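Help!! Second protein's tokens look totally different from the first
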Amino acid sequence: MEGRERTSRPAGARFLNEAGAAEKVTWRETLIRVLVVDDHPVVRRGIIQILEGEPDMASVSEAANAGELMRLAAGGDWDVVVLDINLPDRSGMEVLRDLKALRPDLPVLVLSMYPEDQYALRALKAGASGYLTKESVTEELVAAVRKA
């Protein structure tokens, strides 16, 4: 699926910031392209559905394992990767380090079923732009992708 381009900027678009106050956003000419990596098809589809429901985002591709991710990352042009820390073929932390070595400027958000206190610091030290648990609410995921 190719990234969708916006033909015009929405007038007066606003989103709620972390404090719940409406704030004006600066729109990009193209949508935020997201690569979703998770070994569970239902989780991938859910994340994609959430992100594609946002007016400024498009999920360009998805991967079910580290091998697929690295192939896609080598030839793709994404704005952010949402990466599950627990993949079937390799440790998510190893994959994160390899991905950052291959594409150092590519923001990576780690999404995990594990509590923050177990992996968040390790993920950030390995190059992640952020860490979210799978218990996070939709708004937190969307905000983290925009911020990355």
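Here's the second one for comparison:
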Amino acid sequence: MPKIPECDRCQYFLHSPYIVCAVNPFGPASLTCEDFSAIAQADAEISRHPLGGGYYLGDWVPHPFPAIVTDTQVALLDWHPQFTGHCPECKRPIAESDKGHWKCNHCDWKYAVANTPD
């Protein structure tokens, strides 16, 4: 998808990894775009919201932040058998549990999610 530098300042730019523009989905055919329509500076200032929230019906509404940070999420995805399908100790396949309890039949590794009934 060819994208020219002006695309970022156009009102038709979709900010999508799949479609460049609402008018020209695959981007302009040349180094210039006949459909370019710049966003007015006043409109751009109004549409900007600070990070961490936005305005809804004139009221500031903060975005909910995840309880764990990205590094912790990645570590959990690389380690937990729910995502890997393997025991973190012996690396053998482990069966999925319905109640959040995990047990390896080979090395007796166990993991239970807090606040789940046995």
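Reply: Different proteins will give different token patterns, so don't panic. The helical segments are 41-47, 70-79, 81-84.
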